[in-house]
Amino acid sequence: ILMVDEKGKNMKCLTFFLMLPETVKSRSKKSSKKGNSSSSSNSKLPPVCYEIITLKTKKKKKMAADIFPRKKPANTNTTAVQQYHQQNLNNNNTIPAPNWQGLYPTIRERNAVMFNNDLMADVHFVVGPPGGTQRLPGHKYVLAVGSSVFHAMFYGELAEDKDEIRIPDVEPAAFLAMLKYIYCDEIDLAADTVLATLYAAKKYIVPHLARACVNFLETSLSAKNACVLLSQSCLFEEPDLTQRCWEVIDAQAELALKSEGFCDIDFQTLESILRRETLNAKEIVVFEAALNWAEVECQRQELTATIENKRKVLGKALYLIRIPTMALDDFANGAAQSGILTLNETNDIFLWYTAAKKPELQFVSKPRKGLVPQRCHRFQSCAYRSNQWRYRGRCDSIQFAVDKRVFIAGFGLYGSSCGSAEYSAKIELKRQGVILGQNLSKYFSDGSSNTFPVWFEYPVQIEPDTFYTASVILDGNELSYFGQEGMTEVQCGKVTVQFQCSSDSTNGTGVQGGQIPELIFYA
């Protein structure tokens, strides 16, 4: 069989050469009469007569998916497909029905049937620590195609022919997630296993899965898990993730330090956080967080959580806490009575606060720089009139969106246009109706047209390209200044902020004029 076209040139058509049986028979008889002919010549008789049949074919080659476009299968096939998928997840090792290959139009889908399936498996993995292992089937060829480590393991120069391989340092769920990616080209990540999956992807050099894990972690990053992820990002050598963790820890330091995840970090990460110059937190919060970490560390080292053992596990990291920079009340009522300091240290720090000649201290005495808040002012001018702006407990609201992740720390608000006055302010930040942050406080205005900051208890993380609603309910008897010539878009440093009207506003505030002149944020 040869592949030729109609002209006999290009290999695009089929040509069949048909030898006539009668001709073959007669040639065989003539050949057998010759005594000096070899047996090899008899076996290679050329055809005397042949017929050419040309079959035309289309020029474009099609893949299986093109030939068999995916349609909604019948109920029987759907049930069978679902059974095979469930079988793969549960590792039931059920023998597939005859011609199961016909249920799947593409090689990718047929290959996916082999995921976590004993059918044709030529290797098994015992995954997990002792007491929590799971035996998983594998197929060397598929694994070698998906990972250079598996290729070296099965086909390299030092390959070992083992039917069972033990992997005690990887969690079974994470190993399954990696296998699912290799077999099915599907990424299935969960918050409770993504770090373990990242470890597996790094170990077996599956870079695209590792990048997907990092992206998942970045999008789910918050103050609650930032410290743990900082520790892991350094371990996995992911500088972008490390930088993102520091951004969250710096801006939402008090939330991060009070989280349960802070107590799970290693000693090296603890030192790096305590040494951080831009940590935006009160020093008493840093001190209390360090003591909480020390208590958990004692449990990890199977030590009784006494004052002596806490100080022992903290080691020199204790002196990274800037105790002399605390407010005097915080020191007197907190650190001084904690028992973690020696008597001499307590006396020296008290002298540091009060004496003209200050003693030398082992503790860092220079305050942290923290973060400098940025202010986005959305009005080009402000004004006041004899009958505007009154509050009477009504809501002023505006919607905004940013193009980069920021942390809203508070709002800048106008004050009285009739001299000094006190206002009660309830500020609120929402996303799609869900309250992300709110605070109730009072502030004094001096009668000028300046703005006065009102802060949230903790900065609120704002994701890019999503509109949030900023609201304030002010209560005050005096008339207030209000903004004019509002802008729909403001460039503030490297951050672009867009504004639009909010349906929550019942006191007249909008894009062109009104209240909430400033957003105060960290970036």
TrEMBL record:
Source species, domain of life: Eukaryota
InterPro entries linked to this entry: BACK (IPR011705), BTB/POZ_dom (IPR000210), PHR (IPR012983), PHR_sf (IPR038648), SKP1/BTB/POZ_sf (IPR011333)
GO CC terms, sorted: cytosol
One Pfam entry name: BTB
Gene that this sequence comes from: Btbd3
Subcellular location: Cytoplasm
UniProt keyword terms in alphabetical order: Cytoplasm
GO biological process entries: cerebral cortex development; dendrite morphogenesis
SMART domains named in the record: BACK, BTB
Protein name according to UniProt: BTBD3 protein
The UniProt record lists the keyword Phosphoprotein: no
Domain BTB, first and last residues per copy: 121-191
PANTHER family per record: BTB/POZ DOMAIN-CONTAINING, BTB_POZ DOMAIN-CONTAINING PROTEIN 3
